[in-house]
């Protein structure tokens, strides 16, 4: 059986920007060995394999593979997969995706002459702020001083399905100059209980961030849906952006330091002053070398 492979850049409309992923349509009947082989050949951080639903509880089943292992779910590869389904197969609307992490509500809708993919994330959860003694070590591991962390704001593990350590910076100008120590960050990951580090800054009605995860072999991720989603919950909890009491919407910018700029569109529904539901959305671009068939 022939299967079509697409090369997609997510969270951007410009090929070569954003976060790259592979998408394999018609993946039914493939075993894990075959999926791993294709994921390794493509070499992207994640490749999405689209399968038919296995029962009536969902509309589509998607599996995600790095070049070495299957992972439960991936934000940018989800955007990539459903962008291909919309742009190539004409599948639009709201539906349920089954992943290794459970079920997700996905929406593929027309936006400014193209497609935008939205993912409803899990309920926000917050860890305790890291201890004061750890703040200095975290700053040093990122290549900055303790005073470069935003005063009065916690360094905190936040999750909407995949936890990240959110590190607020006092000045956005610090972001591009960060030179993290991978070994130090990996060691600290074990202490704080999360493997992804997301230093960020807020200004001008938007956020800018970078994501490092050396504990799982990712020196830096270009654009991370599963970091900008928790960031939205953090912004509401700590009152860092104005909103109408019902919803906060903003653009999360990432990838500039790698030359792969991208934007995650984040919306946080608010109930009783607290973040309740987080949705991330993104555009995508299919590269010209896409659609090749493999067996």
From TrEMBL:
Gene3D superfamilies: Diaminopimelate Epimerase, Chain A, domain 1. GO terms for molecular function: isomerase activity. InterPro entries: Phenazine_PhzF-like. The active site is at residue 46. Keywords: Isomerase. Pfam families: PhzC-PhzF. One of its GO terms (cellular component) is cytoplasm. The keyword Isomerase applies. Belongs to the PhzF family. This is PhzF family phenazine biosynthesis isomerase. It comes from Pseudoduganella albidiflava. The lineage of its organism: Bacteria, Pseudomonadati, Pseudomonadota, Betaproteobacteria, Burkholderiales.
């Amino acid at each position: 059986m022939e299967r079509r492979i697409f090369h997609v850049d997510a969270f951007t409309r410009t090929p070569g920007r954003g976060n790259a992923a592979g998408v394999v349509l018609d993946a039914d009947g493939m075993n894990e060995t075959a999926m791993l082989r294709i994921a390794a050949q493509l070499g992207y951080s994640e490749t999405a394999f689209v399968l038919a639903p296995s029962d009536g509880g969902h509309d589509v089943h998607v599996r995600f593979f790095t070049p070495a292992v299957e992972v439960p779910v991936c934000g940018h590869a989800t955007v990539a997969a459903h962008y291909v389904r919309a742009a190539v197969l004409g599948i639009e609307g709201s539906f349920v995706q089954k992943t290794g992490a459970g079920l997700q509500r996905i929406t593929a809708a027309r936006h400014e002459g193209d497609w935008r993919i939205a993912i409803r994330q899990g309920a926000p959860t917050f860890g305790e702020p890291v201890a004061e003694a750890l703040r200095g070590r975290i700053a040093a591991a990122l290549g900055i001083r303790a005073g470069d962390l935003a005063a009065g704001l916690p360094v905190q593990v936040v999750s909407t399905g995949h936890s990240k350590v959110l590190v607020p910076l006092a000045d956005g100008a610090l972001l591009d100059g960060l030179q993290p120590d991978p070994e130090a960050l990996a060691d600290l990951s074990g202490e704080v209980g999360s493997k992804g580090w997301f230093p960020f800054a807020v200004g001008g009605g938007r956020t800018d961030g970078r994501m490092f995860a050396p504990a799982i072999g990712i020196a830096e991720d270009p654009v991370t849906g599963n970091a900008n989603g928790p960031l939205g919950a953090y912004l509401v909890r700590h009152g860092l952006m104005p909103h109408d009491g019902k919803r906060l919407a903003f653009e999360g910018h990432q990838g500039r330091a790698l030359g792969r700029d991208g934007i995650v569109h984040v919306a946080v529904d608010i109930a009783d002053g607290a973040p309740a539901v987080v949705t991330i959305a993104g555009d995508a671009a299919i590269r010209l070398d896409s659609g090749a068939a493999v067996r």
